[in-house]
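Hi L., both proteins are below.
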Amino acid sequence: MTHRPTPAPDRLQNGSILSGAGRSPDGLPSALAVLDMLPGLVAYFDRDLTYRFANATYAAWRGIGPDQIIGRHCRDIVGEANFPTVLPRLTEALSGTRVTYEYSLFDGGNARRVQGSYVPDIDADGIVRGVVVLVTDISVRRDLEARIAENEIMFNDAFEHAPVGMVVTGADGRMERVNAAFAAMLGLSIDHVAGLDFRTITHPDDQDADVTLFDEIVAGERDTYTLEKRYLHPSGEPVHASLAVSAVRAPDGTLIRMIAHVQDITERRRADRALQEINARMTLAMEAVRGGFWHIDVESRRFETSPSFSRFVRGPGGSGPIDLDTYGEYIAPANRDAASVQTLLDGEIDNASVEYELATVNGPRWMRCDRKLLRASDGSPLRIVGVTIDISEDRERQLRAMAAAETDPLTGLLNRRGLDQRLAQTDDGVSVGIVAIDLDRFKAINDRFGHSVGDTVLVEVARRLRGVVRAGDHLARLGGDEFAVLLPDADDVRLAVVADRIERALGERLVSNGITLPVGGSVGASLMQGSRTTPAAQSFAAAWARADAALYAAKRSRHTHPIRAA
């Protein structure tokens, strides 16, 4: 059966779809003008699926003029990608059934989600003469629905699996929803906690503060509050928690719900109490010693000392805080580089211990300072903590012990160990003069006059040696009647001058208890050339061998005379 196309109104027949819409005699837009104003696509197909009308939005979506749409077949305009989708629905509408469905409308490589509504145009005889089509873009709505659904899933997942307690509370204080972490914190099940009034599980001593803030949110006086409080636990031990509550309100400000984040801080509070006890004990301990604590905030470089340390440095009447630069001025200039905390501030090391001389209200004191760097979770330097203790007495005892270990007790000169220590302290590349000394006829003096006279001779020799060298030179008794002299930063000329002075000093007459003792000495000298590649000990051994050889050569050339009493 063939249906004749239904004659369209003049506007449809002449195809002037986008022409001036025109107005009715009362000034209102015409019906077709209203269709042009709609944001959706409006079209009319006859039974042959030929366009008889398309509104302005339809033409704009298709990107073609209205005169290129009217009279053309649906397939030509909607395209091959869309026609297989719309044809079955158009056919259904042409059968007299109203059709509404959602589909993806393709425009080249792009697609948008739309809703199509197809309404059959049925005349008074019940004959379907065509189809009115309305297509609306629902992409934004679908995206919004998807985002809402996604946000709902994300909220539920975050709520249920959060490592801290999560609670949704109504304006009446009843907990409508709680997560597993919150229930576990209270030692109860979710079913047991959900539905309870928060007041019934709050420690009685904390109820007033919590309820006051809660009521302020209900009254619209605030939207958030934070509070540390205690919850009741079946064990009888309270649960310490950090509570953060936020209001969820409607656009008009009406309270919908409150969401609370609850973090269990029971262990932290226990640790805080333990730390306070430790600090109190340490403070008492530091009051019993000379010194104190200090710390530096790395970011601000703020330096703070304990009261005991401030009193130790400045005395009870000291005014004002001690900043880092000011404290540095109390350190002896020779020790300031070694006492620097810069490597700790830069995060290059984590621990350091140093000893330095510090000016205090009681005069210069030697201090031992132990420092430790505390780091943030990302490893960056956060804080330096230190303890500084007066070790002056210990240092004096240590220095005396070191001096005794390095000193010949009879003459007060260095012993062999002390000489080795001074040699080790010699800078690389510095030439050192070495003088080897051996007394003549010393054994005969001991044998004839006894060891007490021999000791007198050794003490006198030490005195004479001190008189011919500089303060920075090093004198040593190596044992028996052997002596040595180190002349740092010497050359051949100075070495020869000092060796000659020593030989002449030893040759002077020595009288002890009315007895003239013919003490003389043989001297050998050698210059140890400074080297940055050869170890000092190796260079010294070679130079000492040369000096020793020179000494014995001089001794062989010397005539030995019998000892006579004066």
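That was the first. Here is the second:
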Amino acid sequence: MIPLRLIINNFRAIEHADIDLSAVTLAAIAGRNGAGKSSAFTLAPRFALFGDVIKGISMDDLVRRGAQEMAITFEFEHQGSIYRVIRTRSTKGKGKSTLELQQQVNSQWESRSAEKIADTEAKIRALLNLDDETFTASSMILQGQANAFTGATAGKRKEILSQILGLNVYEQLQERARQRAGLLDIEIEKAKDRLLVLDERVEAHPRKMEELRTLESRYGFTQAKVAEDERAVRETEAQLAVLEVKRSRILQIDRDTATIDDEIEVLQKERSSHTERLERAEKILANEEGILAKATELEEVKQQIAALEARQPEVERLQRDLAAAETDLKQLADELARLNERVLVVTQQLSGRDALQKQAADHEQETVRLREFEAKAERWNLLAAELQTLDTQLDRETFRIETENRALVDKISTLEEQETHIHDSGCLPTCKFQQAAAAAVAELPELRRRLADLDRSQIAALTLSIAQKQIEQKDIGYDPDTHRACRNRVAELQASATAFAQLAGKDELLQQLEQQCAEKLARQESTTARRDDLQQQSADLEAELAPLPELTARAGDLQRWARFKDEIGAAREAAANAKERIAAIDQEIAGKQTRKEDLENEKNSLVIDTLEYDTLRRELDRSLAVLQDRRRQLAALAEQIGGIKAVLAALEADQLERDQLAADLEPKALRWTRYQTLIKAFGRDGIPALIIENAVPQLERIANEILGQMSKGKHYIRFETQRELKSRDGIAETLDIMIGDWTAERPYETFSGGEQLRIDYAIRFALAELLAQRAGSKVEWLTIDEGLGSQDAEHRALVLESIKSVSSRFKRVLVITHIEDAQAAFDQVIRFENSDGGVGVQVA
């Protein structure tokens, strides 16, 4: 796999970057810290290919702050074809992600995506034959991880190698084989226990067959007895049915007799009601003359009440007029009080006229002074603003000169150090690093001249202008404290000046108020006289209406007698009807008494006929009890027969189950034996040990090729996978690193820092290449992230030479570094530069 192009939008700190890698072979990645170098070349390709690859960080946190949508496009060549992966993430709403896999066919992009993102990611892993962990290990040396393998203990190295080779899968396979063997073992033991139980059960089959024949014989005898008892019960039930009809007739007669009694009772109550009505009608007819006299007297009283009630509206009118007069008097009193208060206030205001006039004159004089102060303040503020502008220009110019001076001094210092390094390094003149340093040192005379010729004339001109403006400001003679005191004095006198201006119409207002007071007093006297007249009229009318309550009470008493006048005619008719209805009721009661006697005679005859009913009922109950007992016996026998048949069916099923278990037991035992073999094969001493033993020589070979290129054949690597125990007999599993030269072999830990660094990179490059080969997908791309920052100048040069010496094994080698002399060692440099809040990328 070879990267060709990377387009980044709103990913972490990068707003936009378009990186063309098609012409890059060996290049340094340069730019300030935080510009996004690591994000672009280590995280962005992994995120595009494999998705959520950063532990502890959600996909939404990868979107640049302030943006809502992110996109990464990664183009690469793989196995002779060109592919493109486009992954996006939006934080709008609930969030949305997309993933597209495309292949270039005849200069056109054709989709190779699946419907779901997870399925498309599976296609990418199948295409590359890599997951994120293997991809990262084979194509990237992340910051601080160059000696992650060599710096570990011997035992830890073997564990890391096992993880890199993916041998932990055999632990999972062994566990799965052990689980399945355990399940099979449980099934086999259960089957054996089950066979013992089934053997005991099937032995009872002959005995159960004999029990079944005995129960079937008893069942036939009991069934015949049940039929005989059922015939006797039916005969007794027929006799009882006849007697039941007669008993039902007796009950019906009792109900009819009770109904006749109820009807006679109702007729007797109706007769009592008609008797009471007859007595009331006869009383009204006896007092007819007195009732007519009381009705006449009621009419006379009603006429007197109507005459007096006609005067009642006049009383209400007088009361309303009297209430209105009282309201007017109260309103006039309130208005007079308010007018008197206003007269008093105006009189007091006119008494202080001279003092207000003096304060108004002082207010006018202070207002003139305030205008003069404000004119001076405006000129003062304009000059202050100009001084502030000049100070800002002076600071900006001073900062520019100091910045340019500091940059020139720093660059001169750096070039002087490189000049010293040229004489001390011992490198050949043809070395690219030596040539770059010589070219930089050639700039020193020009930089020193530019430092001496820095133009500081603008600073002097700005300083002179500031001094002149300060003199002009002082000549104005403006005092802020005096200005503030004058403004406060004008505010204090403002109220008095306003009050004096308002005194001009106060004399005329006082005359108007006094005239209104006189008018209100005249109206008050007139309203008082009218109120007294209304009070007298109201008293006279109340005396005339005094008899009205007594007449109203008398009318109520007479009204009770007047009602009887209208009932005299109805009373005559009611008396005649009551007498006629009472005679009819007496005749109807006599007929019902006769009917009741006939029913009682019929009942006595039926009672004699049903005397044998109880005897037959008891006989039937005994027969039913016997029949029910025989039926229970029959049901019990049927249940026993069904139970034995069920047991026999279960025994037959047990026989079939036993035969099946016996047939299945042998193949399960064979499978259990095979799983035991797999458990041993997947163990540490099985297939994983063979893989490590085969991988170590391959790792040695690749590492020695790379280390030979780095050390020019001086050193070689040998891995020891086993070591004899010192405390007792035996062999310990280990992974020691032995480094040999022309003299002898020594452990890796005994070498110097620079030599260890070359060994670290050699083994790290070898691990990456081994991992890619074992995955069946060669990654011809290597990214080294900040692998130089912790090294001094001497070791840094060794690392750079080591990287260059192995660069031919990869199609793309990218080294992320912020060190300028390291950047100068590469023919190609990819620079990250700030541009409008984003990152501009230049590939040179």
